[in-house]
Write a structure and sequence with these properties.
The complex is a heterodimer. By secondary structure, chain A is mainly alpha-helical. Helix content of chain A is 87%, strand content 0%. The longest helix of chain A has 142 residues, at 338-479. Chain B has a five-stranded antiparallel beta sheet with strand order 2-1-5-4-3. Classes of the chains: A mainly alpha, B alpha+beta. Chain A binds chain B through residues 225-228, 259, 262-263, 265-267, 269-271, 273-274, 277, 279, 281-283, 285-286, and chain B through 12, 14-16, 25, 27-28, 38, 71, 73, 75, 89, 91, 93, 95-98, 105-107, 109-112, 114-115.
């Protein structure tokens, strides 16, 4: 409920309800007054009716007594001019009559008829000059009945009026009760309104205070004095509640926008820190409702995508250059200026340079390849030759070494020979002595051989005789027959021995003859030897001289050879060094050739325009 | 007594984590305040800077919220490399990294002294209940 409503409720409501209640009371009072008036009218009517009834009753009594006394009475009035007639006939014309219930109307009609009839009879009786007995009796008989009907009619009407009066009285009582109730309600409502009005005022003050605090907090939040904000306390649905709801809605919106801005800014910070570290591929994906923040984010994104594109182009080109493909260039956006433009142009220049350089490298490489091949060939030859030379020198050195060794041996040998020569000389002297002794011994052998020959002749003769003896023994044995059988075997054996002795003697003779021959030869030889020794002695002495000469020469030769050897060694070393150098150069030439090949292969693998 | 690093008014600590809270990137302010080099933080869980005074319920609320794809905000006491601490008001967003992978972006600013006091007491109470 709004404050206005609350105020209307509390103040307007007070007036309104009071007025309504007062009006109600006034109306009730008016109705009451009207009812009182009706009541009074009715009371008058009832009184009049009552009077009419009494009057008629009195009249009837009077008439009855008159009639019973057989008297005459005067009647001046007619049915219309009498008290009843004067009331009745105008009454028939009123709405009241027309609205009466029909039994009452009928009773009043009966009344009118009987009243009229009564008046007619009584008038007739009154008009007669004398006492008309018939009329009097008729009147005495009918008048009470007629009166009765008249009274019944009047009483019926009167009863109706009394009933109405009672009704009005009851209604009036009720009205008074209602008025009391209304006064009580008015009092209660006034109290309630007073209570609620005060409470509303207090609540209002409290709400305003809460709202004020909430608003201050909201401003603190907007001014970044606090980090977070709880929504304001909202109670009810008055203007302050609506205002609080409005502020809460704004707190929500502002919080959301601050959060959105913070997310965008967080992303900006992270993204730009990445850029600082060389990462260009990120984009700010969050959005803000703040047009400035959104513009900042979209500007950064645009910048990042352009830089990223440029960077990826540069990266691709440089990677291609790194992979020896110098054909492509960086395509430069016409929007580019200053630094990036310079970088991209420089990369293109670099690409051109690399391309040119690669082309030159290929040409140079090919040239180098050719030259290095030639050089390699030459150097190989050189190396081969140097190696051959070295090998030859090595062989030479070996030969020289051998010669040295031989020469050294020669010298040694010469010296040994010299010694041997002396020894030979001595041996020759000894030999000569021995040869002389041998010659003498040979002579002795010859003498002994003759003695042996004589001895052999003896043996030979013995063998012959033994043979003959054995023959004789065999004959004897044969003669002896079976008994000489064993002896025959012995004889045979003796014969064999004799034969073998003869053979042996013959062999010895031959041998001795040979020995003699040999001894003679030996003597001859030893004589020759003596002569030979003499010659040898002379020769040996000469030889020793020669050997001494050789020894001296050998020593000189050794000195010479050692010098040669030194030279050869040096030459060998130098040659070997040369060969090494040549090998090294060949290796270098090979390497150069290989490098040239690699260079060409490398240069060929590069792609350029 | 551990030393408190009070953030300056312009401090804006930002870090990016993967879906499991492993740090993928952090800005200079964060590195400087926490006392780490960036390469010491990358690949480490964000709990590297968690302070033992923080109640578990706070981080549970954080994870429950961000895993639902909502933004979490709260006051956090963090630990520095040198054993000190610093208070932040953190806002953690579900976030899509530049490679398209899902993760979280945490943005932190300086909270007011009153707020720090309030949450210090509150967290002490929570911690007692643990």
């Amino acid at each position: 409920m709004s404050i206005k409503q609350k105020l209307f409720m509390s103040i307007g409501g007070l007036f309104g309800i009071s007025i309504v209640l007062i009006l109600s009371m006034a109306l009730s009072s008016t109705i009451l007054v009207g009812q009182l008036h009706d009541f009074e009218t009715l009371a008058v009517k009832i009184e009049k009716n009552q009077k009419l009834i009494i009057a008629h009753e009195k009249f009837m009594e009077k008439m009855n007594s008159t009639l019973l006394k057989n008297q005459k009475y005067r009647s001046s009035s007619t049915h219309t001019t009498c008290v009843l007639g004067k009331w009745l006939y105008p009454f028939f014309k009123t709405d009241e009559y027309k609205n009466l219930p029909s039994p009452i109307q009928m009773k009043l009609q009966v009344l009118e008829k009987n009243h009229k009839k009564l008046h007619a009879i009584s008038h007739k009786y009154a008009q007669s000059d004398s006492v008309d007995t018939v009329l009097r009796n008729d009147l005495i008989n009918t008048a009470p009945l007629l009166f009765k009907d008249i009274i019944i009619g009047l009483e019926a009407y009167n009863n109706l009026l009394l009933k109405k009066e009672k009704q009005i009285a009851e209604t009036a009582d009720f009205e008074v009760f209602i008025i009391y109730i209304l006064i009580a309600i008015l009092a209660i409502i006034t109290l309630l309104i007073g209570f609620f009005g005060t409470r509303t005022a207090l609540n209002l003050a409290k709400s305003i205070k809460i709202f004020h605090t909430g608003l201050n907090n909201f401003f603190d939040f907007i001014n970044r004095k606090v980090s977070s904000l709880q929504p304001m306390y909202v109670k009810g649905d008055d203007e302050i509640a609506i205002m609080s709801q409005g502020v809460n809605k704004n707190i929500e919106i502002v919080s959301k926008e601050i959060q959105d801005d913070m997310k965008v800014m967080g992303e900006v910070v992270i993204t730009l820190d990445k850029v600082e570290q060389g990462i260009y591929g990120c984009q700010i994906k969050s959005h803000s409702k703040n047009p400035m923040v959104e513009t900042l984010a979209s500007t950064i994104n645009k910048m990042l995508s352009v830089i990223n594109e440029d960077m990826s182009q540069l990266r691709s080109r440089l990677e291609e250059y790194g992979n020896n493909d110098f054909r492509n260039k960086v395509s430069i956006s016409p929007k580019l200026k200053e630094d990036m433009l310079a970088v991209m142009q420089s990369v293109n220049i670099l690409g051109d340079s690399l391309s040119t350089s690669a082309k030159a490298n290929l040409n140079n490489g090919r040239h180098l390849e050719k030259s290095s091949s030639t050089m390699s060939h030459s150097v190989n030859n050189l190396a081969n030759k140097a190696n051959q030379q070295a090998a030859s020198l090595e062989e030479t050195a070996a030969a020289v070494e051998e010669i040295t060794s031989i020469t050294r041996n020669n010298a040694n040998n010469a010296s040994q020979m010299s010694q041997l020569g002396s020894k030979v000389n001595k041996a020759v002297s000894d030999g000569m002595i021995l040869a002389n002794q041998t010659s003498q011994a040979m002579d002795s052998i010859n003498e002994q051989v003759s003695a042996i020959n004589e001895a052999i002749t003896v043996i030979d003769q013995i063998s012959f005789q033994t043979n003959i003896l054995s023959l004789n023994a065999a004959v004897e044995a044969a003669t002896a027959g079976e008994a000489g059988k064993g002896f025959a075997v012995v004889a045979q054996e003796v014969r064999n021995l004799a034969s073998r002795s003869a053979e042996a003697a013959k062999e010895i003779k031959t041998l001795v003859e040979n020995a003699a021959t040999k001894a003679n030869e030996g003597k001859k030889v030893s004589d020759e030897m003596i002569q030979g020794y003499e010659t040898l002695n002379t020769n040996t002495s000469e030889t020793i001289h020669l050997i001494e000469d050789v020894s001296a020469a050998s020593k000189e030769q050794m000195t010479g050879i050692e010098q040669i050897n030194d030279s050869v060694t040096m030459l060998d070393r130098v040659t070997q060094e040369n060969a090494h150098e040549a090998d090294a150069v060949a290796q270098i030439a090979h390497d150069v050739s290989k490098l040239a090949n690699e260079l060409v292969s490398d240069a060929s693998s590069k792609k350029f325009n | 007594m551990a030393r408190e690093t009070v953030l300056d008014e312009f401090a804006f600590l930002v870090s990016e984590t993967d879906s499991k809270g492993i740090i993928r990137f952090a800005n200079d302010d964060f590195c400087k305040v926490a006392g780490y080099r960036l390469d010491e933080l990358i690949g480490e869980p964000h709990s590297k800077v968690r302070h033992p005074d923080m109640p578990k319920a706070a981080f549970k609320s954080l994870w429950d919220t961000v895993q639902k794809g909502e933004v979490w905000t709260g006051y956090v006491k963090n630990a520095t490399f040198e054993g000190g601490y610093y208070w932040v008001y953190a806002t953690v967003f579900p976030f899509e990294s530049c490679d398209g992978s899902k993760g979280y972006l945490s943005c932190r600013r300086k909270p007011s002294i009153q707020e720090v006091k309030e949450y210090e007491d509150l967290y002490k109470e929570w911690k007692k209940k643990e």
